[in-house]
Amino acid sequence: MNPAEPTPLGKTGLNVTRMGMGTGPLGMVHDGTAWAAIFAAAWSAGVRTFDTSPYYGFGNSEGRLGRLLAAQNRRDYVLATKVGRLLRPDAPIDPFAEAFYYPQGMPDGVLRSQYDYSAAATRLSLVESRQRLGIDRIDIAHIHDIVELASGISHVREAMHETYPALAELRDKGEISAVGVGAQVNSVLVELGTTCDFDCFLIAGRYTMLDQSAIDEVMPLCLARNIAVIIGSPYNTGILHDPTPNATFDFVQAPSELIGKAQQLKAICDRHRVPLPAAAIQFPFAHPAVAQVLTGARSAAEIKENVQFMRVQIPPELWRDLRKSGLIHPKAPLPGGL
Description:
Layout: E1 6-8, E2 15-17, E3 19-22, H1 32-44, E4 49-51, H2 60-69, E5 78-83, E6 85-88, H3 95-101, E7 112-115, H4 119-133, E8 140-144, E9 147-148, E10 153-154, H5 156-172, E11 178-183, H6 186-195, E12 200-204, H7 218-225, E13 228-232, E14 248-249, E15 252-253, H8 256-271, H9 276-282, E16 290-296, H10 300-311, H11 316-325
Parallel strand pairs: 3-4, 3-16, 4-5, 5-8, 8-11, 11-12, 12-13, 13-16
Antiparallel strand pairs: 1-2, 6-7, 9-10, 14-15
Helix pairs in contact: 1-10, 4-5, 6-7, 9-10
């Protein structure tokens, strides 16, 4: 599979590359030479879709990505960011994010993020994102993290009645090309996708070789409503890259049953001499709703590795063995029409 192959993103009029670069890690790689090398590796491989967010590194991802894109022709790439969080000096402390992006401690002057899904905040968020990026147009605006999992507070209603209408108006005016949702909760995607006219869903970790929980409701909804699917976290934050006893799933220690399942998947791949991550990154494309897979990387070597995984020729026998194993949901299509 060619990671640089352009493909239509549903009804948006945009063409995205099969592999996109998720730039969350740019918010945590604080060596300028390193993050420039990450971008250069992606660009040289033909990757022309870049996904960011104000939340990633509390603005650092957007700022760094903007500086890296400054030398490129704006018509040559597709740019996505997210709304739902504003960066403010007096925002509440977010222990998880601060430890994730700044393990040595938050430096002075770094803004924190606060949830705000109001229409006014939505418009302001895109203005501030454009300023950090130094770019006058954003192609895709995703509503980000609609359920605040740490507290259980749901933002679905506000997203439906405030965020979405504001983004739809910007789309109607031609200021953005597509409105999406970035989420990992299937029920949220179903509720929003049923009531609003979204162009794309960025589904994080819910349609992978390990977890196909989106197959029953989300994926049929996307086909019925022509919502293009972008797959985030194809390795489920690590376990499908290397299913060791200490592997992570959704950024935390994976439960033993998932580690066991991932190891069974790896054993099948090993029999066919195919790296598990190669099968994992190619698996989603068998579903007709899927346009793209996003991969993040903390080094240029990881980008190059992901590109190679996309290019691995996988024998049909591997997919047949996966189907026979019962490890894949029976409704989930596999490459080759299996």
